[in-house]
Amino acid sequence: MGTTKALSSPIQMNPPPYNRGTSCTAAEGGDQQDATFVKYGSPFTMDRLFIGLDPTDGGITAIELIENRPVSFVLKVKINDRDIKLDRLRPTCHRHLANLKEAFVCHESLLFIYERWDGVSLKGIQELGPTFELGEVEVATICCQILHGLHYIHNTLGISHGAISEQNIYIDDNGDVGRIGESMIRGLIHGGEVMDISATLNIARKLLGLQGTSGGRGTVGLLAHDFTAAPRGVTIEQLLQLGGRIAHKYRKIKYEMSLEYIVTTTKRRSNTLQQRAS
């Protein structure tokens, strides 16, 4: 059995302001209500280049290739409720979301086109354990990214996500909350904002391998305990403040470099394990 490798924590985590550095723009309709946003028919019949994929657990059925633009991803969702409120759907623009670009109603399905779906999912990182683990500061960085995304979802979009889980969080140079289109369809769930925050803290505990609300050792470990043991009703702003205290210990290293390190190391380790398995 391999020994557990915990990442060192060369991380400065002062998360950037909302909406900085996104590829979406106001001209593309980000955040704006648009009566023409939802289209009827299949995007695959248009004069656009799509490559079909075998359906994955995440529901991704195709990618779209556009010259000099990042790859877009098509996610298919079955419509079970014929009274679904399509007017809730709108484009998004936030650096910590897999941003929704377009939505199509096709037969009994919704096709969501997202601007990107990069990175490694947290579920993928978990599946590399116990030979690969994230430390307290890496986990705090990831959780702060989720919280920034949730702040936008709760306050700008006026909804709750409703499905924060390891499968729906992707780690790249930003860290993205996925499947926002389905969240719009669900709308604002009663108590949904509290559930989103609770789910984020639960992710932190899982990634740290904590039982209950126990923390690690040393100053960072104690701060991690305070973070994961936050009481019900804690706000996103309070958690971001606490996360910043954890990151402050490592302020000399650039935020962007640290996330690149996480993604690169995780992908390399994943490829190594796959090669060994084959």
TrEMBL record:
It comes from the Eukaryota. Keywords: Kinase, Transferase. SUPFAM superfamilies: Protein kinase-like (PK-like). Residues 1-21 are annotated as: Disordered. Residues 35-278 form the Protein kinase domain. The keyword Transmembrane helix does not apply. This is Protein kinase. InterPro entries: Kinase-like_dom_sf, Prot_kinase_dom.
